[in-house]
Amino acid sequence: MKKRFLCFVLMAGLVVGTACKKDKDENGNGNGNGNGGDLPAEQSQNLLERTSREMQADLSELLNSEGADAIVTLANNIGEDDFSEFSKRTVSNTDFRAKAKTKAKAFKQYFTPNQKSFADEPVTSLEDMSGEWELVNGEWEKIRDHERLILHFPAPADNPINNATFTWTAYETQSVQGDDWPSKIGFSLKLDGTRYASVDFDATYNSDGEPVNVDYTLYLKPFTSTFEFKNQNNKVEMNTSFSKDGSGEFFTTSNKATFDNGGIDEGDVLNASTSIRYNELVFKADMDVQGMDSDHEGSEVERMNKYVNAKFKQHPSNSLVGELFFEEGDYEGSIDVFIKYNDGTSEPLIKYLDPILDDMEGFFTDAEQARMKSKVRKKLKLKK
Known about the structure:
alpha+beta
């Protein structure tokens, strides 16, 4: 429903805009005594600009790491046709439970591709695809039996040796309404014996197939990301954290939403809140979704400004950096987000997001080009 979509898009979109890596004391910022007060507009702008630069640097380091490159290389060589079909199916399916089931099944397909290069007969389950495999001239060759799935491949893709190793460490399921849902997943990826990426996933589901508890940890050297999800009594809570080797945790979020009796599957959002701290910068927002949906006066932008309370603050001083408000965009249906400083001036928030979004777009464009090249090589049997 539109109001549910709006609620979570608001939260997710603003997470991107709240990034700063180091506790600093530049321009008089980051050294408050906790008594609050308002930051001058110039200091607020400096804080946001610093935030944008440091987020861009962190994102560049993450996307260009050897671990990220190895994951892209692996994805380009395993089950891409199955994954494409998975995407087509899930995009067109709007039912929550059916979509989740499809994703669970497709997850198996992605790591158990139905292609003869992995086995003499088509693969039908994870157990069928155990063993140790080498990537040779774009084709997978089994070199020995093993109780787990182990894949050796080159990273980057033009490396002359198979220096990367993917190991499937855990996969368990929970039976729900006759279907097996992933309840435990684990894998690691090493380059020349050093861990560069790993995933640990644990989940439980209720009898309707809704997730009740989810714990997820992703390591992508040198970053660790955690995700915790709880769904109880029509209340949903999502917590995340981000840390870096040697420097500890620098990013945390706490997101909460309350639903009516239909719950997360079929219910409507009543209210939602988010609290995000990225060291020196804090973002907080509360949204009365039920009030906005029941109020039919004024435009959607007017209702958002009435029922959404969002602001940036500085940590640890608790000084107000600025408040957010919304305006109609340049084209039909678009909404622009602005930040209003303490002297009454304002500017579009996108100013601080553009460099980050450009980097992300460039990464995914490069990844798609690499995927297409890998696909052509396979079809033409070209040696890398």
